[in-house]
User: What shape does this take?
Amino acid sequence: MKYFQNKTKLKKKYLVTLFVVFSLFFNESTNAEIKLPGIVSSNMVLQRNTKVILWGWADANEVITIKMSWIPHLVTVHTDADGNWSVEVNTTCSKESQTIHLKSDQSNITLNNILFGEVWLCSGQSNMFRPVHIYQKEPVYESILAEADNPNLRLFTINKSGSKTPLKELTGYKGWQQASSKDIESFSAVAYFFGKKLQKTLDVPVGLIHSSYGASTIQAWINEETLSKYEEISIDSPLYKKTPNKVPTVLFNAMIHPITSFAIKGVLWYQGEANRQEPEQYKKLLPAMVESWRSLWEVGEFPFYYVQIAPYAYGSNAPFQTVKNTAFMREAMLECLSLIPNSGMAVTLDVGAETNIHPIKKKEVSDRLLRWALHNTYGYKDVDCFPPTFDSLDKADGGLLLKFKGAENGLSQKNKMLIGFEIAGDGKVFYPAKAEIRDNNKVFVKSDKVSKPVAVRYGWRNWILGTLFDNNGLPASSFRTDDWDDASLPK
Assistant: This one.
């Protein structure tokens, strides 16, 4: 009996040993296989006519040969001691479909249906995240879907996730897809409408990378090194698991850092509602975020086009509730234009919704972003992208005459009268004012209650429907001509 027990024990020990050896061999073979990041795959769009990076992982000290259809010779790359590899290659302006074949001793990978085109990263919070199907109750929805199929427009979505440390690879994503009625329904509406019109205008392939998270703060999208220069960071927040979108750096770590080797043309950004109570800090953080992203991508000062938050009735709409008055945030975002090189801002003072923080008019937003891209990035100088912006004022006829930049072709109004203007004298008490367009490109503002006016404000509320435009249909941002501290103004 003891003999059989010992024999059984020896047999079990032998099987365990055999399993361990087999596992080690299997894992070693698996590790030796070429692994690519999720964003480097079939159907992708590579930024055209530039240097791009292909990268991935394999076994340490492995030799990988890469055959690219647009390059006549093989490219050989060696992995480092940790199994990392990368190679920089030139793309062309060809519109033909391309292939990439990678080979090592352990594996072969072929990537098909690759295009060269214009690649844009689209990021931010819920108004960027809002998908095309928000239009499903609108009459235009069927036509949107009917016009969706486009093999030259490719979509890549990064799933919402967070990490306390910078990741090398995305934890979740929907791989590159050719635009179709099925795929665009769940894709960012702002990004899709921008990409669709850009592809049609340029007649080249366009790739859109969507990486956004609803209700996220800007702090969550900034790397630790940069953010620590402006505020104290606490990544070990109890909010981390439930609301990573509120925790500093974690969205950058999981949703931006893994793709910083993937060449892009520029960035579209729609975020700010979550930071509306800290406009002065936002005015520091947005330029800092852009600078850090540009440094990580190492492609120079790529275009950065962003959306000013739209009006919305955040609780009280009283003019003197400084913390809640998002006009200060809109002002901070407007001022960021002069702080961020190669940037542009889409004004949305006319497309907000009083009771919906997610206004449905995403086409208008994307169109204004597209204007910036076409004019500034692609050289369509006849496309106007500059909204009318307050420049200076003069006293005239018992009121104030306002002059604007970006109104060379004249100003216009969408209502029978301009609304949203207020005027004040030295007493700093603002009264509703009458406003009218004069000399085609100036606005005269006056109130019978202010005999000696010194300051004007326009749209200085949480909720306002913009009425002042230029003759090319671009709305003016809310603005003020004073720099008074509202906390000390008479109530």
About this structure: The domain at 116-377 is CATH 3.40.50.1110 (Rossmann fold). The CA atoms of residues 319 and 461 lie 6 Å apart. The mean pLDDT is 92. The chain has two domains: 116-377, 389-488.
